[in-house]
Design brief:
By secondary structure, the protein is an alpha/beta fold. The chain has helices at 10-18, 28-32, 63-67, 75-83, 106-111, 117-127, 155-160, 175-180, 193-204, 207-212, 227-236, 272-275, 277-280, 310-313, 328-339, 350-356, 359-376, 393-410, 412-429, 432-435; strands at 38-42, 49-53, 72-73, 97-103, 133-139, 147-152, 187-191, 213-219, 244-248, 257-262, 267-271, 302-306, 321-325, 343-347, 383-384. The strands form 4 sheets. An 8-stranded mixed beta sheet has the order 6-5-7-8-12-13-4-14. A 3-stranded antiparallel beta sheet has the order 9-10-11. It is globular. It starts with 9 loop residues before the first helix and ends with a helix.
Length: 438
């Protein structure tokens, strides 16, 4: 199952991990490189970020390769290191308790993606002195359609970074700032499964980083959308990127809506149910995400995401979060945040959580089909040491549809001439042109 052997030097990393389509775009390699030989730039060709090497600065230390989650993740070894045991639950990974909750601050809850639990936990940790800052992501003020990962050190900065970002985010670039911080500084990190995997691998080969990162908060993630997805949404609203002053992909209640403030002061709203249609079908998805087996950020201290089951969200238009506390530290911080009034929460049966995030099981099955296809095409695929499930007939059908949608939306011709036209027709039939507006 192992792909081509990896060279131990940086040029081997760039040629094989990036060139073979295994880069997750997490930014870990850039953040941990001690000589600043790597950078990430937005690529107009694939709608994501690409890694670039300055060979004159590379020392060949190999840290980038060892920390990269793109070519391999030994979930079993990392679980033993983090939790003291390998995961036995194939859908949730290791956990100590499952909860349904939300921020006690109404404004935080209302303006978050789903309940604001991550924001509340960061505020608790910062204001109680457990951390000096947190690695989070917001949309840039100078380029509002691009993300900016940074170290938030105030309440205002943490709140400013709330809400989901439906675009590529190389969050781990900000590890540079953590590594450069003063001795004894403590930080939390917030990221998608690939970000948390990269950070855990980086910590395994950098003692300084491991000592400074004291809390890992993971976000549920089915896949990342490329920047083409945002461009398409703007197009469906009759806008272009130059019109946009700010963009929020979620917030204003649950499940929320896409909210765009224009430079002329107008505001455009697209309900979440309309915004998410292309995302659900994996149009404009980042292809590397089809090779991911981790929906719930299994290596985090606490993982959070939307609660989709009707019995969990009945008559709720503000939002609640699923929270999976995985480590003793995570459970302790979560419990204290409840006691001190930062979070309202109740413990729930893990079976209910599994039903709500059934795609965690789907990922564990369908990934074997993806591996099979890449093996047939003589393409490399990531080496995962973890529990996976055998695919069924539905897995093959799902994978076929997914690959077809990816092929259409990643092809410049179809994306520009055919695909947008068809989706515009679909959105018009759905009444989007009447519902989306000021």
């Amino acid at each position: 199952m192992r792909q081509k052997s990896m060279n131990a030097n940086l040029s081997g990393y760039v040629a094989q991990v990036v060139g073979d389509g295994l880069c997750t775009g997490c930014g870990t390699c850039v953040g941990i490189c001690p000589s600043g030989a790597l950078r990430m730039d937005r690529s107009n060709a694939n709608g994501c970020y690409s890694v670039h090497l300055d060979s004159s600065r590379c020392t060949g230390c190999g840290l980038c390769l060892r920390a990269c989650p793109g070519h391999s993740v030994d979930f079993k070894a990392l679980s033993l290191e983090i939790f003291g045991k390998a995961a036995t639950d194939i859908r949730l990974g290791n956990y100590q308790g499952c909860y349904l909750g939300h921020s006690s601050d109404y404004a935080v809850r209302y303006n978050a993606a789903s309940g604001g639990v991550i924001t509340a936990l960061l505020l608790f940790a910062l204001e109680k002195g457990l951390i000096d800052g947190a690695l989070v992501t917001r949309m840039r003020k100078d380029r509002p359609l691009e993300p900016e990962s940074f170290i938030a050190r105030t309440r205002e900065e943490i709140i400013d970074a709330s809400k989901s970002k439906y675009c590529p985010v190389p969050a781990n670039i900000a590890l540079k700032e953590i590594l450069a911080s003063k001795e004894g500084a403590k930080f939390a990190v917030v990221g998608l499964p690939c970000h948390i995997q990269g950070i855990r691998k980086a910590e395994s080969c950098n003692k300084n980083l491991k000592e400074k990162i004291v809390l890992h908060l993971g976000l549920f993630c089915s896949h990342t959308d490329t920047f083409f997805a945002t461009e398409f949404l703007l197009s469906s609203l009759g806008l272009n990127s130059q019109d946009v002053a700010t963009i929020n992909y979620r917030g204003e209640g649950w499940p929320g809506s896409l909210s765009i403030l224009l430079k002329n002061g107008q505001k455009k709203i697209l309900p979440y149910s309309k915004m998410i249609s292309a995302h659900i079908l994996w149009f404009f998805a980042f292809p590397r995400c089809t090779l991911c087996c981790d929906l719930t950020a299994e290596l985090a201290d606490i993982s959070c995401g939307d609660a989709w089951l009707p019995q969990l969200m009945a008559n709720d238009n503000i939002g609640q979060s699923i929270a999976i506390c995985r480590t003793r530290l995570g459970s302790s911080i979560f419990t204290e945040a409840i006691k001190t009034g930062y979070i309202n929460s109740k413990q729930v049966d893990p079976l209910i959580i599994k039903q709500s995030i059934n795609m965690a099981r789907t990922k564990k099955k369908d990934i074997r089909v993806q591996f099979f296809l890449r093996r047939l095409l003589a393409k490399p695929f990531p080496a995962y040491r973890t529990l996976l499930l055998n695919p069924n007939f539905t897995s093959y059908l799902r994978t076929a549809l997914l690959c077809f949608n990816l092929a259409i939306s990643s092809n410049k011709y179809f994306r520009g001439r055919l695909f947008s036209y068809l989706l515009h027709k679909e959105l018009s039939l759905l009444g989007l042109d009447k519902e989306a507006g000021e």
